[in-house]
Structure formats: structure tokens, C-alpha cells
Amino acid sequence: MSKRYKEGINRNQQQFFPPSLDEYVDENNQVRAVELYVQRLDLKEMGFDDTSTSFEGQKSYFLKYIFMATLIR
User: Fold this and answer.
1) CB of 20 within 8 A of CB of 13?
2) Is the whole-model pTM more than 0.85?
């Protein structure tokens, strides 16, 4: 992922408790299926704009993260 976007915490980064953030989510949780689905999408081809080139305001969140959040809600 490019440094042009805000980035979340690395889910494999070791934490004090629990050992990693990825362990909060069960292996069979539907969130994992949504993540795999969205990672395979070509959002630019679907008509979503790339806002990472804007020099105004804050950095954008990575578009796939926003798309995943809307699907999970």
C-alpha cells in the first residue's frame, strides 16, 4: 500500500495483550470473507475515484478499507 493513504495498524504486529490484533477476529468470522472479496475487486474499474493525489486536507483512507467497512455495516 502506498504512503499516500492513511494506514491502519498492522494486524500481525505483536501487542502486549492479545499477542496480535488479528487474534481478535475468529478465523470463521464473516469479516474475513468480506476482506478477501474486497481485496479481489478492481475498484478503479468499478468507477471509484483515486483521491490519493489530492493535496488538500487530510490524507485519504485506503479506498478498500472504506469499502469493507460499508459492506460489514
Assistant:
1) yes
2) no
